[in-house]
Design brief:
By secondary structure, the protein is mainly alpha-helical. It contains three helices and no strands.
């Protein structure tokens, strides 16, 4: 399968970011943070056996929220 054009990938990622931001307010704080923790795990391609560092996940969430 040929690689997708970078412009398409950027456009899709932008739409995902907008959607994430619009729907984040639909969750309680606890549920939102649990979703973000698992999103971090997926984004970093970490298995379920990996123990996540609180500071590392917190910094990543902060960067995502600033974006």
């Amino acid at each position: 399968m040929p690689a997708l054009p970078q412009s398409l990938l950027c456009a899709v990622q932008h739409n995902c970011d907008v959607s994430d931001a619009q729907h984040a307010g639909s969750y309680t704080l606890c549920i939102y943070l649990m979703h973000m923790r698992e999103y971090f795990r997926w984004h970093q391609q970490l298995g379920l056996e990996v123990v996540l560092g609180v500071a590392e996940v917190g910094e990543w969430v902060d960067v995502r929220e600033q974006h």
